[in-house]
């Protein structure tokens, strides 16, 4: 049996992205961490980890993978994430009744905030 242990995100500024993703998800960084890699984990120990890998990579749009983050209060979470440095992504093909909002982290890695209600 396989389980998802960690989802790896390539980043340019490891410290900035560590600050963003720990605040965004309420995760904690495993310390000490390497100068080029950090593992972020849920404080409860339950759920998938996020690993940040300092490695320049070419940005591809649309991305082949993205995170779907489920929110009990989508509007509040989107506003909170914007306060942390995330930005909304406008997409002309997004249906008017879509339950998701497309966003990017401070380095342009895309994710969706899903209305989990």
Main beta-sheet strand count, sense and barrel state = 4 strands, mixed
Helix/strand structural class = alpha/beta
Distance between the termini: 30 Å
Architecture (CATH level 2) name of the largest domain: Roll
Biggest β-sheet: strands ordered side by side in the sheet: 1-4-3-2
Structure description:
There is one protein chain. The chain is an alpha/beta fold. It has 2 domains: 1-57, Signal recognition particle alu RNA binding heterodimer, srp9/1 (2-Layer Sandwich); 59-117, Roll (2,3-Dihydroxybiphenyl 1,2-Dioxygenase, domain 1). The protein contains 2 helices and 8 strands, in the order βαββββαβββ. It has helices spanning 14-25, 74-83; strands spanning 6-11, 28-29, 37-41, 49-54, 67-71, 87-88, 100-104, 110-115. Strands 1-4-3-2 form a 4-stranded mixed sheet, covered by helices on one side. It has a 4-stranded mixed sheet with strand order 5-8-7-6, with helices on one face. The protein is globular. The N and C termini lie far apart (30 Å). Residues 3-116 form the VOC domain.
